[in-house]
Amino acid sequence: MEEMCVKRRGLLFLGLCSSASLVLPLSALAAVEMDEAVKSATLVDDTNAYSFTYPMELPSKKFTFKWVESRKPERYSSAAPLSPDARQRIVSERVDMINNLVISVSIGPPNSNFLTSTDKNTWNAKDVADSVLSDKSALRITTAQRMAESSVLDAHSTKIDGEPYWYYEYLVRKSPTKAVETNSFRHFVATTAERDGFLYSLTASTLSTKWDFMGPLLQNTVASFRLLPPTDSYVPPYKDPWRFW
């Protein structure tokens, strides 16, 4: 893991350091300035050809994240499905159970109910968000029921190196923890990019009660997500769909 330090002032960007490629979700524009350096680490997944950074430590607050790699990066064919139809699958995930944080990367084909065109340059950010969220429920429910679980707060897109990235922020009414109040939501930020006919999505989340503190850090993790030029280690999602190792 490579550590990097991001200085105070302005919007934090914990990833590629080129100012020309700095892109944050709209909600991040209102994020409070961080008066301290943030130590972070970078994950590079050669199998699926993407990277992102995530916070490790806030030195001035003597705060250290307790990340555990719950799912090591793996090829799409062997990854854990997010729904019964197994269209969208988690290819990597890390969690901080102490602070109720989850960062995951999932891959899946576009949902034609929302993305009817094959030209990704015409896709609307809200439609991309709906496409991803509609395939995420682990329950055997209808698409409408899956959509009812989530409320999209913001969605927009931008191009980075000529490729569109779609950013969105949403709440999920069902909290994965039992110890919190019934009116507590799960607060998510995510970004999606397309390659080889599949959507690659990085999602970061925490409880709504922790959002004021954790939210800006998770937004910067999402902003750092990039699809990388494939190497010899890259395995496209459509390759050997029957293979489970």
From TrEMBL:
BP-aspect Gene Ontology terms: photosynthesis
InterPro entries hit by this protein: Mog1/PsbP_a/b/a-sand, PsbP_C
Sorted UniProt keywords: Signal
GO molecular function, one term: calcium ion binding
Domain PsbP C-terminal: residue ranges: 44-226
UniProt-listed Gene3D superfamilies: Mog1/PsbP, alpha/beta/alpha sandwich
Signal peptide: 1-30
Keyword Signal: yes
Entry's Gene Ontology cellular component terms: extrinsic component of membrane; photosystem II oxygen evolving complex
Pfam families assigned to the protein according to its UniProt record, in alphabetical order: PsbP (PF01789)
Domain of life: Eukaryota
TM segment ranges: none
Protein name, UniProt field: PsbP C-terminal domain-containing protein
